[in-house]
Amino acid sequence: MTQNYTLYGMAGSLYTAKVRAYMRQNNVPFVEIKAGSERFQNIISKNVGRWIIPVIETPQGELVQDGTDILDYFENKGFSKKSIYPKTPLLRAIAHLFELFGGEGLLRPAMHYSWNFDETNLDFIRNTFRDVLPDGLDETERQAAFDFASGRMRKAAIVFGVNPETYESVETAYADFLARFEAHLEDRPFLLGGAPTIGDFGMFGALYAH
């Protein structure tokens, strides 16, 4: 009988999406449990040492945290249909560069499009944030917790350089990237050809959720 891994995360989380995409692409047997669950709040986060997502729990009870570490764990376990790390130094460097770009370079547009369009996004964001709120809260408590968390995220967006003075440049740069990347994918399904690399999964989070 196949034993499932457990992925603790959030539906709209950039970094959870990176791990989920790998697990689906490579047929890793898993169940996903929201980070607001009692087990995550009271056991998993304490064993990890802090509240952070994503985390996987292996069938043997081991915990692995951080998106890249999780992908490396599965890579080393032989789950990858094809290694996510290209063999040649040049292609491997490109894959690593785009992983970094996905997690850092696309962070500004991700934060911008998440937190600066309340007229279209707020209901969706409020709903997805239920994944990380502790079970058992009443509606008033959930709203208060969401207001606190969303306030922190909006402040973080400003720290990352997203403010009214930079909105236009963030949007222009993101639109330019999307156009170039779409053209690049016209004759190949993934960044470097026929199979996804660490670079594809690194970009997937921001592109999926935002």
Task: Please outline the helices and strands.
Layout (H helix, E strand, L loop, with lengths): L4 E5 L4 H12 L4 E5 L3 H11 L6 E3 L5 E3 L1 H10 L12 H17 L1 H9 L2 H11 L10 H21 L7 H18 L13 H12 L1
Parallel strand pairs: 1-2
Antiparallel strand pairs: 1-3, 3-4
Task: Describe it.
- Helix content is 58%, strand content 8%.
- It has nine helices and four strands; from the N terminus they run E-H-E-H-E-E-H-H-H-H-H-H-H.
- The termini are far apart.
- Helix 1 runs parallel beside helix 3 (67-76) and helix 5 crosses helix 7.
- The protein folds into two domains: 5-76, Glutaredoxin, CATH 3.40.30.10; 89-209, Glutathione S-transferase Yfyf (Class Pi), Chain A, domain 2.
- A four-stranded mixed β-sheet has the order 2-1-3-4, with helices on both faces.
- It is of the alpha+beta class.
- The model has no long low-confidence stretch (mean pLDDT 94).
- The relative contact order is 0.17.
- A hairpin with a 5-residue loop joins strand 3 and strand 4.
- It has helices at 14-25, 38-48, 67-76, 89-105, 107-115, 118-128, 139-159, 167-184, 198-209, and strands at residues 5-9, 30-34, 55-57, 63-65.
Helix content: 55-70%
Write down the overall mean pLDDT. 94
CATH level-1 class of the largest domain:
Mainly Alpha
User: What is the count of structural domains?
Assistant: 2
| Main sheet strand line-up | 2-1-3-4
CA radius of gyration is 18 Å
SSE string: EHEHEEHHHHHHH
What is the CATH architecture descriptor of the largest domain? Answer: Up-down Bundle
**From the helix content, strand content and strand pairing, which structural class follows?**
alpha+beta
Distance between the termini: 37 Å
For the largest beta-sheet, the strand count, sense and barrel status come to: 4 strands, mixed
Count all strands and give the number.
Answer: 4
Q: In CATH terms, what is the fold-level topology of the largest domain? A: Glutathione S-transferase Yfyf (Class Pi), Chain A, domain 2
Number of helices: 9
β-strand amount: 5-15%
What is the approximate shape?
Answer: flat
The low-confidence runs, each spanning 5 or more residues with pLDDT under 50, are none
